[in-house]
Protein 1
Amino acid sequence: MGFEPKIIAFCCNWCSYAAADLAGTARMQYPHNVRIIRVMCSGMVHPELVLDALSHGADGVIVLGCHLGECHYQDGNRKALARSEVITELLEDFGYETERYEISWLSSSEPDRLVKAFTGITERVRKMGPVNARDLAG
Amino acid sequence: MAVRTVLEWLNSCSGCEIAILNIGEALVPLLTRHLELVHAPILMDHKYLGQRGDGTEFNIPEAEVGLVSGGVATVEHLQVLLQMREKCRILIALGTCATHGGIPALMNGQDRKEGWEGVFQTRTTDPGCSVPDVEVPAPLDRVYACDEKVEIDLFLPGCPPNPALIAEVLMAVVEDRDPVLPHKSVCDTCPVIREGKGAVSVVRRFLVNAEFLAEDPIDRMRCLLEQGFMCMGPVTAAGCAGGGLPRCIAARVPCRGCFGPVRRDGNQMLDMMNALASNGSDFKSVVDRRSLLRFSGAHGGLRPLRRKSAAERG
């Protein structure tokens, strides 16, 4: 059995969670490694939530929000983008590779983009290996 | 009846004990009437292994309340702390070292081996010097806060802790009630003028003086963060406010974060960066951001930087 990563996905209620719903009803296949957590807006995903997920054993975290400019709460996803920059910058400080985190945008009618994003991060993290098996010596 | 009390210090500088002394007049009735100190290495000669060192069992007397300052950095600290937990009904972590690791936990941010060698084998030490392995308690793999090792009943952070709050906690124990402690952030106790978000694009270090009129009181001064200085008020627990003003702000100096995070499991650096970013400030302008964890490096806050693998280095 090869390594199967655990991926936490924060999906916003209005776009990406609806897209995931649509992917389900359309019977589209995506990796079973992804655990979806529904949030009201991608802008509410505090960097601490991402760090918490990684420190509790998630191998990768993805945040999915509405397209920029189409936020249900006007500018929530712009906030998410600003926070996302903090996250990618700070992951190294806490000893994680930045590639374990990703943010992406999609609308509720784009389940194919969702599947692509899920497959993308799963494959990438699968290659990186488990979250704490870092090469400390090298 | 006086409450049996134990004072102990681990990886500590004795600043917390000075803070106990600073309780001032209220300390007199506490010591003479309310508390009975049965063990306190800083004050009295009471040995762990019998007075002549001939005992075989670790001996800290049983007590109602135990105050422990300092973090856990060596096996000896750990042994003392475990014994304290066993013997004290209420165990209080006193000071930021005990609650969040404090200054000694800065060590957690670097490689332990290099750190220790840097201490014992510098260019100026005599040849042949090495990290001692006898007669000095062995260090743990990193510096821990007390609650990472034993259950702690009450947290009293601060570097140093606020004497008024120490007195409040001790009186609460004597009177068998819940202590009244602050639970908000430094900003909530800060009276300076705030004009709203979005004013700061870049955050500077405090290398030049803030803008204020010397004759004006503090509540006529503009918020230091809004003046563009790195002030940790938003992400630091309240409690330092002696006389109603946060202490550093009273000296017109930005908060350095010595009371640790507002929520017990908060992360000061992450919260500060997040606050700056979501207000539209350039968080990359903060120089040496890892030092924002200078008081809360335990609980895995500070870790050695990940070494890049050969492939990543290219």
Note: Strands of chain A lie at 7-12, 34-39, 60-65, 101-105.
Protein 2
Amino acid sequence: MPSWFQTITKSRFWQSFFRHGWPDNPLDRSLVMTTNIFFHLHPVKVSRKSLRVTYSFGLGVMSIIVFLILSVTGLLLMFYYTPTIERAYTYILHLQTQVPFGQLLRNLHRWAAHFMVIVVVLHMARVFYTGAYKPPREFNWVIGVLLLLLTFGASFTGYLLPWDQLAFWAITVGTSVAAYAPGAGPTLRTFLLGGAEVGQEALTRFYALHVMLIPMGIALLTSIHIWRVRKDGGLSANQTVDEDHRDGQKHD
Amino acid sequence: MQLFEPKKLTRGQFLSLSWLSALVVLIGETAFGLMKFLKPTASGGFGGSIYAGKVEEFPPGSVNYILSGRFYIVHTTGGLLALWQRCTHLGCAVPWVEAEDQFHGPCHGSLFDQVGVVKGGPAPRPLDIFPVTIKDGEVWVDTSKPLERTGFDPSQLTPV
Amino acid sequence: MDKSTIKEPFSKSSAKTYSLVELVHRAPTFMVDHGPDDTVFAFPLVALLELLLTLGVSLVLLWMSLSVNAPLEEIANPNQTTDPAKAPWYFMGLQEMLEHGHPTLMAVLLPTLMVIFVVLIPYLDNDSHGAGRWFTNQRGKSITIKTALYVVIVMPIYIFLDSMFPPRELLRGIFPDLVSQVIIPAIFMGVIVLLPLLVLNRYHPTPREVMLVLFTVLFVSAIVFTLTGFLFRGPGFKLYLPWAMPGGYNPFSNL
């Protein structure tokens, strides 16, 4: 390492930021994980079995990546959007035709939203078929189901925001389905729409749900989800290592 | 003999109970307030009381569309009926098709007769109606609360 | 301290109380002699893998966004319904189910049962043996594949026949709606879902295998219904082939 680099990384200023040395040895590689808030979601050491691509296909990580892409593109879209029935549609037109990269940004947000639904569903299927819901991971499976429902909710509420024919009738049909729930159905629908039909109140409510409540819920539940994965000993594939080992000893 | 022996609470139990009930009250109040806060309030335009027109504008046997209220004024034998255009299946707007003498939903092919009773398709119940009032020859329709029904009954009509 | 109570786990001889195994340099001592250890340091390998995934996902989405524009139709008009009017694609399975029975049954009761079942899976099958292996074992794999094949064949046939000869229209006026729109579809659905379970029951299944069958039936049915509603439903919500839609309707314009 060049000396100027060492001077910087050994300085008190640098070391107040990073509480580990250059990660080329076991100690510092451990410290990277334990002293960095973004990395501390990971264990210091991971089992090779859980890294196998054909085991997890990286679907859980991909869900988080797409969620982050959606958060960033969504935040940027908010700079060019107002949830009023008079202006929402013209703002989308303006975004697509006048704003540099506006169309690209909207496309990214739209396709990422569809992608997230697919990835989250596939992730659930993967977890089911690998039996990764089994004890002690029952509760994390329940959180996962909630996350799937929230993903549907996030995508569905976002669908209305462009305020075009596609959005309007999709939400009309979708919320009409909810009204068939025995008992609370019609009330649920009115609360969701803020009225009897899809209108300004519905747009306002869907906007608040879409940009605030549901993303916050997803972020919170995702944190618990990942924390639980760590607490339960990483991916279930790790467990098979232990089982093989135990079985091996049994035969001695 | 005493049926109910008075139970003695310790100081700790009493305090725990107090805190717990305070918490329950707090949650209850918050939930109640939240429900009240989020409950939609009806305002003007659609969702309020709408002027449909003069009685003479709706001759017997006619079906007229009122755009601002998204409903149809049907004048059938016995009086007026205000049918909400919203299909009872999934909420699509159902147009009146004069040539077929029926309401024909474009989404899933639900069919309704002149008074909104299902003739075919997946709709589970007749078209919803709005209360109609006639004041000084003017037809007013209250669109704030659509009325669900299971069939047609002459009592639903407002006599002219 | 009484020496006889100290257990030295790595010692071969009971007389030997200590041994020099290895000199540990800058590594936690608890890692030593911990049995065959198939682990690697998460840094930098996992960080690199995640970076790779991020790049891959971004690249795919960017390529998609550059080649296909997000749809935007005319401004919303509450007085004019589009034909067909479809929900977002992931709810098309629900909308398709609505075609085959009363909404309360198809859009509320069955989906609610489905969600409750999915939530309860880990509590119905709580034997942690086989966790972390795809389909648990070879038998699980073959059960899953057979069930999936069964659903892929039976469900489209049911959807097609039910659309050709809908009990709702055939029995209108003969039986009340409760019979034609709730009881009959519920019996059909129940038979289709429970039939593979009855077959499986003859082979003394474990709870895991019951879950495999039920989940596969529901999961593959959801896919079949979603694809049918999304691809094969055209104007008037009638069944058409996706490439032969009347009026030039393109199912993908609803994305």
Note: The mean pLDDT of chain A is 89.
